[in-house]
């Protein structure tokens, strides 16, 4: 930037770097007045705080800036939070499934705004404060008044990304109100996603045998390695190296409105999700049996799905969860009651994602380093792995108490 002492900063190509928002009488751009730099934001007026807004006579400032204002005036509509989010969802390159999730956070099925967005959406984006964003988070509750932790988390991600994509990028804001310190809503994991204890895993495996052993390979794979359900469904013959005891994760299956909610093979969720996972002997043997069954059914090409419907098409998550996993947990709960297991209520309503979290926890209990678990799970951030890794089960608590008791006993003996 080439700084001039009598006007705004000028870009190297000579274009101006100042924008004027007439609807708010607001100037955005770095300027110099009387040889002193003026803050990036300012309003035309008198009596403003020195150092934060223009404190010179309005006419003087206006005449000084007028030659440099090369941006077209922006309408009030384009300055609203709603318009900012719409522009982000339209202009940002993202997966269709991600865009649909964000749309559901902002809009209801009939196109009306969600209740928690009705006060924030009409606000001018440039005037939004962290307190306004926090207020919107607080309004994210179900019709029964229950907290919707996952929706709050998605809303936070959406607002943070939309502000970065719009006002922050074009220079009309310097601080993202959705990225302020301490503003991120605390994510309390819902009960449908939890970790199965080793005892509960035993009941689940026993229940699968009782029910005929369907999807044995899928169950063992997801209990041993942190694979997302959509990644497991997307596995094809070419992804398996059973001799080397490894599987390559490169794709997942998504079901979106654009595809009529039919499974579509696509890239993984993030670049970190593209990874290689490793198998121990029992899992490799189960996958080998699954592969042989698929080949016996005539699915012999490298692109054939490892887990498929009877007609060879990719499976749908809701079908697997409803027809196999839910009955599996119900049977496991029954076996647990018959065995007198009463450590805690058996999670017969847990979702399939619990298998992924359980695999992470199994790796932890096996002593696998945290950074290795992060890679195997395909997590982008270590904090995501830690959130699951640091969960405490009853068994962990009992082992900790036993260890402390033994330590005190040793000390007392000395």
- The gyration radius over C-alpha positions equals 28 Å
Q: Number of helical segments?
A: 14
Q: What is the second-level CATH architecture of the largest domain? A: Orthogonal Bundle
Shape: globular
Pattern of helices and strands: EEEEEHHHHHHHHEEEEEHHHHHH
Q: Strands across the major sheet, in which order?
A: 1-2-5
> What is the CATH homology-level superfamily of the largest domain?
Intergrase catalytic core
Distance between the termini: 73 Å
The structural class is mainly alpha
Oligomer: single chain
User: Could you describe the largest sheet, including whether it forms a barrel?
Assistant: 3 strands, antiparallel
Summed up:
This protein has 414 residues and is mainly α. It has 14 helices and ten strands.
Structural overview:
The chain folds into 3 domains: 1-74, no CATH class; 77-179, Tyrosine recombinase, N-terminal domain (DNA polymerase, domain 1, Orthogonal Bundle), CATH 1.10.150.130; 198-396, Orthogonal Bundle (hpI Integrase, Chain A), CATH 1.10.443.10. Strands 1-2-5 form a 3-stranded antiparallel sheet, with no helix packed on it. The chain has 14 helices and 10 strands. The termini are far apart. 42% of the residues lie in helices and 8% in strands. The longest helix has 22 residues, at 149-170. Strand 1 and strand 2 (26-28) form a beta hairpin. The protein is mainly α and 414 residues long.
């Amino acid at each position: 930037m080439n700084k001039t002492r009598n006007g705004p900063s000028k870009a190297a190509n000579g274009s101006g770097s100042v924008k004027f928002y007439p609807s708010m009488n607001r100037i955005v751009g770095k300027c110099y007045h009387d040889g002193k730099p003026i803050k990036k934001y300012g309003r035309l007026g008198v009596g403003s705080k020195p150092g934060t807004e223009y404190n010179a006579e309005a006419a003087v400032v206006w005449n000084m800036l007028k030659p440099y204002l090369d941006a077209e005036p922006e309408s009030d509509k384009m300055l609203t939070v709603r318009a900012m989010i719409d522009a982000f969802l339209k202009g940002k390159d993202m997966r269709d499934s991600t865009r649909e999730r964000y749309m559901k956070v902002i809009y209801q099925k009939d196109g009306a705004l969600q209740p928690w967005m009705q006060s924030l959406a009409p606000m001018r984006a440039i005037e939004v404060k962290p307190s306004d964003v926090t207020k919107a988070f607080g309004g994210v509750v179900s019709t029964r008044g229950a907290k919707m932790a996952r929706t709050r988390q998605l809303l936070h991600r959406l607002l943070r990304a939309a502000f970065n994509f719009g006002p922050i990028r074009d220079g009309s804001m310097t601080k993202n109100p959705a990225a302020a310190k301490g503003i991120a809503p605390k994510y309390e994991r819902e009960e449908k996603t939890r970790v199965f204890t080793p005892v509960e895993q035993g009941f689940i495996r026993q229940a699968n045998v009782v029910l005929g052993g369907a999807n044995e390979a899928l169950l063992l794979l997801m209990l041993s390695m942190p694979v997302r359900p959509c990644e497991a469904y997307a596995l094809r013959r070419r992804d398996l190296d059973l001799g080397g005891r490894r599987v390559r994760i490169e794709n997942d299956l998504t079901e979106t409105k654009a595809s009529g909610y039919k499974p579509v093979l696509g890239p993984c969720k993030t670049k970190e999700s593209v990874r290689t996972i490793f198998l121990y002997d029992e899992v490799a043997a189960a996958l080998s049996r699954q592969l042989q069954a698929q080949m016996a059914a005539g699915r012999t090409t490298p692109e054939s799905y490892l887990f498929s419907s009877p007609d060879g098409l990719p499976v749908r998550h809701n079908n697997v969860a409803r027809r196999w996993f839910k009955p599996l947990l119900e049977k496991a709960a029954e076996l647990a009651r018959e065995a007198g297991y009463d450590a805690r209520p058996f999670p017969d309503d847990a979702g399939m994602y619990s298998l992924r979290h359980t695999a992470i926890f199994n790796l932890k209990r096996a002593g696998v380093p945290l950074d290795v678990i992060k890679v195997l799970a395909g997590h982008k951030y270590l904090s995501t792995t830690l959130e699951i890794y640091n969960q405490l089960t009853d068994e962990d608590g009992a082992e900790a108490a036993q260890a402390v008791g033994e330590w005190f006993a040793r000390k007392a003996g000395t």
